Amino acid sequence: MRVRGIFPSGGPADARTLITALKRSDTGRAAGMGVAVIAQNLLALVFTIVFARVLGATGYGSLAVLVSAFIILMVPGSALQIAVARRLSRERASGAADAGVGVRRWLALLAIATVAVALVAIPLRSVIGAIINVDELWGAAAVPVTAMLWVILCVERGALQGFERYRIVALSIVGDAGLRIVFALLLVGVGLDVSGAFVGTGLAFVAVALLLLAPLGAELPPPDERSAGDARLGELLMGARVPVLALTLLLAIQELHVIVVKHEASGDAAGSYAVAAVAAKAIIWIAVGLGLYLVPEAARRAAVGGDTRAILLRCLSLIALAGIPMVLIYAVVGKPLLEAVFGEDLTLASDALPWLGLAMVLLACTYLSVQYLLALHRYRFTWILGAAMVVEVGALVAIGDDLTQVAIALMVVQALCAGAVLSLALRWRPAPRAPDRVAEPAPMAASLVE
């Protein structure tokens, strides 16, 4: 007996056809990329839990500082990924036979630049270590090198997106997050400790970048020495310079407090503060997801002269709906929660956790307001982010090693910043603009919430 209504025509073969069609549709491909990013962030959380336990409080405090410094340097790579994908998509849409002809040259130049950065970073490892206050000097030297490896990987991913190879890009996103854990465990296992745990990230980027060369090479046209396209990588990045500046400042505001605490507090206290900061950033996951909807929707409404503020307020209300319960949970059961997830030696910042949670809720509001303003081609807010970064660092240095007071000060700075940026966002009513001025999402590093 055949049960009707389960499959389109009553058979599994039709269901498989439907699933295949869905995978190839815009919705299916977008969903696949979204699932990959979610998986990446979950693996990043696993990385934090594993190495908080493996390295202990002091060791994880140093690792968290290395990761925070790297995160601040991630934005240019993410911007290039979007710029490369956009350029190749337009070239292919216009029927250009040499779409992507410059990619090989870009990758070669970036590889040379990476070697040059390594040659500078290695002798300066003591200086870098002193700036971010870590004793693991080889890990400190690896920070700028890892940022360059990230740029190479982003250019490859952007090119593959331009060629509509979304499945490979999604697998690479999950792959580098998983390999990062594997390589880090191997390096820690052979005695490299904190430096090994961080260098594992760079090795993961190298492995995935090498694996992407084959599918990317199959799509690229033969090299053409006459083409001028290979000289424009800098132009692509310069075209996104304002979003890059804004989001770099935003990530600095998000991460610098971890580095400052490492300077001011003991090793165990800094490690405890770092894991509390990771827990507090859970709300940023939601903000990033909302931003993927907010930016194109705000741009679309602006293009037809509609009032875009309602969509921003709706997204902010969802942040409040998720953020308020999170802060209450941290206030009531913060210490047992940190102990259960990260270990009993990483609970020194439990009293600071609710304030950190509130600070990150406010940062999420700032993030959405920034993405909204970028979608409307409004850039005058960047001075607010710069001022907030300076005030944050100055205030935290003045406070010293009192983790709860640090978190409260961070919350106050985030409140002032969010209020100023949001007031600008709500003040502007966009005039009707041509469809070709519709903004694309500003770059945001996938590991924003780590």
Question: How would you describe what is shown here?
Answer:
The chain is an all-alpha fold. It folds into two domains: 27-239, no CATH class; 242-439, no CATH class. The chain is 78% helix and 0% strand. It is built from 16 helices and no strands. α10 (241-264) packs antiparallel against α11 (267-280) and α12 (282-303) packs antiparallel against α13 (309-342).
Write the layout of secondary structure elements.
Elements: H1 12-24, H2 26-72, H3 75-93, H4 103-121, H5 125-132, H6 137-162, H7 166-189, H8 193-219, H9 233-239, H10 241-264, H11 267-280, H12 282-303, H13 309-342, H14 353-375, H15 382-399, H16 403-427
Any descriptors?
450 residues, mainly alpha, 0% strand, 2 domains, 78% helix, disordered C terminus, globular, 16 helices, disordered N terminus
Largest sheet: none
Structural class from helices and strands? Answer: mainly alpha
The number of domains is 2
Task: Please tell me how large the radius of gyration is.
Answer: 23 Å
Give the SSE string. Answer: HHHHHHHHHHHHHHHH
Fraction of helical residues:
over 70%
User: How far apart, in Å, are the first and last alpha carbons?
Assistant: 52 Å
Low-pLDDT residue intervals, each spanning 5 or more residues: 1-8, 434-440, 445-449
Number of strands: 0
Shape: globular
What share of residues are in beta strands? under 5%
Number of helical stretches of at least 4 residues: 16
Give average pLDDT, whole number. 83
